[in-house]
Amino acid sequence: MTEALSFSPARLGRLYRFIAGESISRTRVVSSVPVYLGNLNIRRATTMAEHEVKLDKEPSLIVHLLSTLVGVAGNCDRLIKEIMELGELAIVDKGKNDLQTEVDRSIQVFVKHFVDNLFPKVTLIAEEDINGETFCSNKEAWKWEPLKLNPEILALEDKLSEDFKDIKQDDIVVWVDPLDGTFEFTEGDLEHVTVMIGIAVKGQALGGVIHHPFFEVEGRLSKASRTIWGLKGVGYGGCEIKTPPDDKLIVAVTKSHSDPLLEAALKKLNPDGIIRVGGAGNKVLHIIDGLAHAYIVPSRGLKRWDSCACEAVLEAMGGLITDIRGNHYSYDKGVHPSNDHGLIAVLDKEKHKIFIELFRD
Ligand code: AMP
Ligand code: MG
Ligand code: MG
Questions:
Q1: pTM for this structure?
Q2: Angle at CA of residue 245, ends 239 and 246, nearest 5°
Q3: Ligand nearest to the CA of 183
Q4: Distance 228 CA to ligand 3 centre (A)
Q5: Average pLDDT, integer, range 212-217
Q6: Closest ligand 1 atom, CA of 283?
Q7: Nearest CA to 153 among 53, 221, 79?
Q8: SS3 of 356, please?
Q9: Contact status, residue 221 vs residue 12, Cβ threshold 8 Å
């Protein structure tokens, strides 16, 4: 169900500032360690038994994991909106235009809780450095929605090849960006934000979930959310793919981390349109929504948690995500998380060559 708000994006930005109070102003950035606002232990608020789902037929691990993570992402949606209403984001400044909020921390703990409990041998690597105990900001006891396993994903079972059915928990690394586009989030640009959960198997991005808590419906920012998912070579869902005009070239690029390399590349490329928006997930959504042909990053800055879910989802749709040399990143548990050689993301694989050429020298 789509609940369109009667506010323009700019107005909603102001509303957000209003409900968040002064907490998003730079003067309230907290010093260096995360601040745990609540004392509610998440383990008391939800037991795994509540989330046990009785199935007629035991699904394969990959289908079970992906459908669980789509359900977890649905619960994250509520978490984001309730923390915003509490109005204290307790921002930690991690570097230049690199922030962490209570939403980032809470979502990370929440996702880890489910993965650790339901899939104990799966490795989870997430963006935020949190050394504290489990926590949740909400002062009241949370009643989590029991996880709903997405029937569309469960139905993929019949399409799986034997390779997929043989996947073991030890083969899997789940890469989590609890909130992508945090900088823009703190600026009130809510539609730039996504929750991203990527599933890598034997080092390759195979499955992904991109949860979009706020998006525009018919030009208005919507309180409704969408969860887009994909399993490479098997299927995808949660959205309708749209294609941008074929006679034009439109690229999506960073809003807050531009550098001379990017500006030089854009000058050389001279595309018909440049969309400057926050978040890696959001730029991939621009491609899926037919607003841009490509998302490009010429230099380092992104990390594996920014690209794993994006790569799996876009490639499940027939697209391609590589570094600027045309290589896929490895998502093995041992890798350094920095994406040192930038990123090229396209849905139309033919367009990929344009950018390989652009970055050749
Ligand atoms: P952007 O396109 O600048 O919104 O970046 C997409 C994602 O990558 C966001 O999660 C950013 O936090 C992250 N990111 C990109 N560049 C940098 C950078 N130079 N330093 C830190 N994070 C970055
Ligand atoms: Mg990110
Ligand atoms: Mg993040």
A1: 0.88
A2: 115
A3: 1
A4: 18
A5: 88
A6: 2
A7: 53
A8: helix
A9: yes
